[in-house]
Every structure is written in structure tokens, then in C-alpha cells.
Specification:
Helix content: 25-40%
Number of strands: 12
Structural class: alpha/beta
Organism: Metarhizium brunneum
Shape: globular
Number of helices: 15
Mean pLDDT: 92
Order of helices and strands: HEHHEHEHEHHEHEHEEHHHHEHEEEH
InterPro entries: Aminotrans_II_pyridoxalP_BS, Aminotransferase_I/II_large, AON_synthase_class-II, PyrdxlP-dep_Trfase, PyrdxlP-dep_Trfase_major, PyrdxlP-dep_Trfase_small
GO molecular function, one term: transferase activity
Distance between the termini: 52 Å
CATH topology of the largest domain: Aspartate Aminotransferase, domain 2
CATH superfamily of the largest domain: Type I PLP-dependent aspartate aminotransferase-like (Major domain)
Family: Belongs to the class-II pyridoxal-phosphate-dependent aminotransferase family. BioF subfamily.
Strand order of the largest sheet: 2-8-7-6-5-3-4
Cofactor: pyridoxal 5'-phosphate
CATH architecture of the largest domain: 3-Layer(aba) Sandwich
Radius of gyration: 24 Å
Strand content: 5-15%
Length: about 450
């Protein structure tokens, strides 16, 4: 029997209708098998790598016949098994950390860590563009959260005062002068600084060395704790994919790292790298670990297989190809911009070389651009507010080691077609007989950089 109609359904329908009218309605979609993937986070194309799949199946077949598909319990009850603890130790050692604790996802790792580690009276300073999971963790926690301007450590000389969050240095100075300043200066109050290694929407890397130096300068009592979410830097950045912290040699100066396995690593799950004391504390207090079923043997084996592949150097060729493709793609996109000179609100890219496989294509008409590319067989996704700040809508282009230069050229051709269509639309007469302004005539507008809100 179908459930009776509820007034609550009418409320939901009205809210969904309003969101659809605003152009913000989310839907589940299925990617057409024949399309070229320029959208997923699988930067190394490891999830479909035939060598990894063969090795994974071999690991399962060589295991004891009595291994279980699932753990059937939390790690505190019946879900802990030797392969989980062995994997934690191996991953921690590979990334130069003293200990690690597995979580079922990066979201659960961040919410678990941020909700329980900061104590009452502590502060969490966070990059304003940090992931939603960190926001949810802070909301569940007991510390006061304060944003700082994205990837800005100090104001540049002569820079005018801008509205919104201030650079990290200014936020720390204000904190030291505030009502709890004496507690912060004396080390009684802890200050956590949360950033991402690579930001998923802009594709830019955190200025981590400057961040660490800033925290150590202002919090000399050792009460400054930097947390780095390496979700989008794991697997491809640093030596054999160790991540940004290892690339910069900051292993002993960063308090905690979150590495996730569902992006470049091609599987699922996450780990918090930390001290043994922090690991024990999370086991006792992180609710997203305590009250969930632990990963089963098949998933642990998948993670183990991918790490074996990276550590053996088998992915070195994929990494080199990805780096080369990043530069080639940026060069081709710059060529498109120089050829067509579109106004920035129609189409623009960052003029500086990409720092990651994520290249945002900024456009106020991102849905139209994405739809055109999809119709040409290239899967890209429009990203609009509120997922990104208002006025920074974009098509999110993600490159993968399995992509080819030919595919990138095809995508750029599709973008050029779209730009030409927009030019024709703007040149066509309006219904009132007044000619629209020419897009091609706005060539004096520069290629603008996205604002760091």
C-alpha cells in the first residue's frame, strides 16, 4: 500500500520548484558510455586501470576463502581486522606520519576530526573556500570558527582594504589582541588552521609553507595546529603521489592530514594521519568512526592494491602524462581565448599555468557551455552558486592520465563552436529591431583572474 499523501510532500515540492526556478535544482544523472570523461576526480584513471584490476582480483583469490564481504560491525565492536591495522601502518609510513586511522570516506574523516579535536574555548581558522565536510565538522564541534581569505596569508604592500574575510596573518593578529588573547599567547587555547592541499573548484594549491610559517610565528607556544585536507592532492602530487605536505617536506610541521582514496586513487575511503595520541583520541571521540560499520576486506584490499601500484613506481608514467597534459591543455585554451577575445563574463580562464588537473572555465553561461560540450561527446559539468561564490560560475574541467591530446583538442573545438554561436546570437537583431552589441567587438577586455573572495 502506498503511503498516504502528506502536507510535507507539498512543502518539499514547493521548495524544489523554487530551486528549479532559480536554476539550482540538483538531479542524478548517468554518463553516456561513449562520452570522454573530463569531469570525474579520477585524475590518474586508476579505477579502470587493467593492471590494478588484475592485481586486485589476484589479491582476493589468494586470500583465505573465509574472508567476509563486509565487516558487519564498527571497529570498536566486531569490525576491526588485522588487514585494517596493517594498512593504516603502511599508509602512515609511506606519507611520513607516525600513525593513521581509517574512515569510510573523506567526509566522515573531516566531520569526525573537526567535531571532536578542538576543545571548548579553542578556535578553528579556516580557508573560506574549504570543503563542506569541514564546515559540517565545525558545526558539530565546540570551538569558535573564523574564516580567512582564500589562499591569502598576508596583505600585499599597498593593497587596499577589501570587504569579507581577512588574510590569515590579520586574523591571527586580531585573535591575539582579542578578549582571549592572553590565553592564546600563553598557549592555553589551541588554534586549528584548516586548509585544503588543492581546492576542488579552482584547482589552486594552498600556499602551505607560508601558512605554516605564519602559524608558527604567531603561535610560538606550540598551540597552533595546521590541518590539511589532501583529498585532491593525494595520488598525483608529490613524489609518487604522497601529497602536498610531503612534496614540501612539512610532515613534522603539519598536525593532521586527511588523505582520501575516492579521487586520484580510484577506490573509496580515507585516512587521518596524526600522532598516536590523536589516533587514540579519535577512536574514543570521533562519532563518524564509532557509530558506523567499518570497511570490509574487499575495500581494504582495493586501497592496498592501489598503494602497492603507486609505491612500486608503476604509476610514474601516468603521472608524467598527466603533468604534460595539464600544460598542453592550458596552452590550447589560451589559444582559444587569444583567437576569439571573448569578454570575461562570457568565457575566461586563469592565465597562469595550472597547479592541478582541475582547470575552471569561467562563464556566466556555464550551463549552456557544458550542455554544448556534452552534446559533442565531452562530459564536463557546470558548477554554479551556491556551490561556488556568486559571480564565479564555471565549467569544471578535470584532466585524467588516460585522456589524450586529441581529446583535449576536440573539447577546445567544441568550446570554439560555442563561442561562435554566442557571437552569432549577439549579432542577430532583437525583436525590437535594435542590434545586440557584438561579442567580438569587446576585444579590449583582458583575461581576468577569478577573484579570491
Amino acid at each position: 500500500m502506498a503511503p498516504s499523501k502528506s502536507r510535507l510532500d507539498d512543502t518539499f515540492k514547493a521548495l524544489l520548484a523554487r530551486r528549479e526556478h532559480q536554476g539550482r535544482l540538483r538531479r542524478l544523472t548517468l554518463r553516456e558510455p561513449a562520452t570522454v570523461d573530463f569531469s570525474s576526480n579520477g585524475y590518474l584513471s586508476l579505477s579502470t586501470n587493467p593492471n590494478i584490476k588484475t592485481a586486485y582480483i589476484s589479491h582476493l583469490q589468494s586470500s583465505s576463502d573465509d574472508f567476509s564481504l563486509g565487516s558487519c560491525g564498527s571497529r570498536l565492536l566486531d569490525g576491526n581486522i588485522p588487514p585494517a591495522e596493517n594498512l593504516e601502518s603502511q599508509i602512515a609510513q609511506w606519507h611520513g606520519a607516525p600513525a593513521g586511522l581509517l574512515f569510510n570516506s573523506g567526509f566522515e574523516a573531516n566531520t569526525g576530526l573537526l567535531s571532536c579535536a578542538p576543545q571548548p574555548g579553542d578556535y578553528v581558522l579556516y580557508d573560506e573556500l574549504i570543503h563542506a565536510s569541514v564546515h559540517d565538522g565545525m558545526k558539530l564541534g565546540r570551538a569558535r570558527a573564523i574564516p580567512f581569505a582564500h589562499n591569502r596569508v598576508e596583505d600585499q604592500p599597498g593593497e587596499q582594504e577589501t570587504p569579507g574575510p581577512k588574510p590569515l596573518d590579520a586574523v591571527l593578529r586580531a585573535l591575539l589582541r582579542g578578549q582571549d588573547g592572553h590565553k592564546v599567547r600563553s598557549g592555553q587555547t589551541n588554534v586549528f588552521v584548516a586548509v585544503e592541499g588543492v581546492y576542488s573548484m579552482d584547482g589552486d594549491a594552498a600556499p602551505l609553507e607560508q601558512i605554516v610559517e605564519c602559524v608558527e610565528k604567531h603561535l610560538a607556544r606550540g598551540n597552533g595546529h595546521v590541518i590539511v585536507d589532501e583529498a585532491h592532492s593525494t595520488g598525483w602530487m608529490g613524489e609518487r603521489g604522497r601529497g602536498l605536505v610531503c612534496q614540501l617536506g612539512l610532515e613534522e610541521r603539519v598536525w593532521a592530514r586527511v588523505h582520501t582514496f575516492g579521487k586520484a586513487m580510484g577506490c573509496a575511503g580515507a585516512i587521518v594521519l596524526c600522532t598516536p595520541a590523536t589516533r587514540s583520541y579519535l577512536i574514543n571521540y570521533a562519532r563518524s568512526l564509532i557509530y558506523t560499520t567499518a570497511m570490509g576486506y574487499p575495500m581494504l584490499t582495493a586501497i592496498q592494491t592501489v598503494y602497492d601500484y603507486l609505491q612500486s613506481g608503476q604509476a610514474d608514467g601516468l603521472l608524467a602524462n598527466l603533468m604534460s597534459l595539464m600544460q598542453e591543455t592550458h596552452t590550447l585554451l589560451l589559444s582559444v581565448c587569444q583567437k576569439h577575445s571573448p569578454p570575461p563574463q562570457l568565457f575566461r580562464i586563469n592565465t597562469s599555468p595550472p597547479e592541478s588537473p582541475i582547470i575552471p572555465l569561467f562563464s556566466a553561461h556555464s550551463r549552456s557551455l557544458a550542455r554544448h560540450c556534452q552534446q559533442r561527446g565531452y562530459m564536463v559539468r557546470p558548477i554554479v552558486a551556491p556551490t561556488v561564490p556568486k559571480g564565479t560560475d564555471r565549467v569544471r574541467l578535470c584532466l585524467h592520465a588516460a585522456n589524450t591530446v586529441s581529446e583535449v583538442r576536440g573539447l577546445c573545438t567544441a568550446i570554439e563552436e560555442w563561442l561562435e554561436q554566442q557571437k552569432i546570437k549577439d549579432l542577430s537583431p532583437r525583436a525590437d529591431g535594435v542590434q545586440r552589441p557584438s561579442v567580438g567587438g569587446l576585444t579590449s577586455l583582458p583575461l581576468a583572474e577569478p577573484s579570491k573572495l
